[in-house]
Amino acid sequence: MTSETVLITGASSGIGHATAEAFLDAEWSVWATARDESDLRELREAGCTTAELDVTRPAQCRDVVEELLTVEGRLDCLVNNAGYGQMGAVEDVTTRRLNKQFDVNVYGPHRLIRAALPHMRERGEGTIINLSSVSGRVSTPGMGIYSASKFALEGLSDALRGELKPHGIDVALVEPGPVETAFSARAADELEPVEASGAYDRVYRFFEDFDAVSGGFASSQPEDVAAVVLEAASTTDPDPRYPVGPAARAMLLARYAPDRIRDRVVDLLYKLA
Ligand code: NAP
Question: Which UniProt keywords apply (predicted)?
Fold first, then answer.
């Protein structure tokens, strides 16, 4: 019998890279994908099959899934990991940048889910794991665009879980707090061209003072997240949501506080900046 097969997006670095290694160690057949296949050389040498996949390209999403099925004959788990953070005050971020954020973080997973599901439904099994974030549960000033994309991914996943239950397919969300990856450097790159209106200085000051994106001492390692993704893929009845790291667990408590109290605490934190 062929081994269980996983398809991972955004495996060139960080959580995606660590996830590919974790599945390899667990003896899965791993299809590690990235926009630039040469960034996957290390994973290919370790035993992964690699492929070029930019999740914003619909035909490429379909082709990679088709090729995987031709070669492996089965897709047991899809890990929608590729993503980045567009930071900035909501007013300051253009609609073009909002579109780009959704193209990668929401439409990309949707394209791959649609490509994978006919096969998974036919087999009556499979797991879809969507990399969300604590920002998919709690939205704070300066993170509105990124949060909106992750809230969308959460909404999509909750509905999908119910739709796929009768078909034997599981859907799990993984919700890390800050993780030490290239994420914060990419977020800084995406923030740089955003034209600040001058009305939200305290928001940007908070980012600088509190290291709000990278999380400082409270951050997790990509391997911690990878272990959780593997656990969700390997269990017969995965949890709907897996928060990862101390910051995620603490911040998710804020989700259960009344909105006005949460707003007051956030306001106080931003005033301190
Ligand atoms: P990372 O090291 O920057 O990795 C992001 C990956 O996504 C890279 O491999 C990147 O590929 C890929 N990617 C970006 N745009 C893509 C596209 N259009 N098509 C295909 N791949 C694309 O960051 P990470 O922390 O591992 O992030 C992985 C996921 O975890 C993201 O969904 C992120 O939102 C989520 N997350 C991260 C944190 C954190 O603090 N790090 C916290 C919560 C959730 P390239 O090399 O081609 O750019």
Answer: Oxidoreductase
Positions marked active-site: 146
Strand order across the 5-8 sheet: 49-52, 29-34, 5-8, 77-80, 126-131, 169-176, 241-244
Ligand 1 atom at shortest distance from the alpha carbon of 103: 18
Q: Are 9 and 108 in contact (CB under 8 A)?
A: yes
The HSE-up count of residue 124 (CA atoms within 13 Å, CB side) is 1
In sequence order, the β-bridge partners of residue 112 are: none
* Ranges of each domain in the chain: 5-272
133 C-beta closer than 6 A to ligand 1 = yes
Which residue's C-alpha comes closest to atom 2 of ligand 1?
14
Tokens for 229? 């993704």
What is the rounded CA–CA span in Å between residue 13 and residue 22? Answer: 13
Examine the pLDDT at 226 and tell me if it is beyond 80: yes
Structural fold of domain 5-272: Rossmann fold (3.40.50)
Give the integer Cα–Cα distance in Å for 64 and 80: 14
For 158-206, how does the pLDDT look when each residue is reduced to its tens digit (9 = 90+)? 999 999 999 999 999 999 999 999 999 999 999 999 999 999 999 998 8
Judge if the beta carbon of residue 16 lies within 6 A of ligand 1: yes
Q: Which helix (H) or strand (E) holds 222?
A: helix 222-234
Ligand 1 atom nearest the C-alpha of 85 is 34
Which residues, other chains included, contact 192 with Cβ-Cβ below 8 Å and sequence gap of 6+?
none
Tell me, what's the pLDDT at 211? 63
Tokens representing 259 are 């909105």
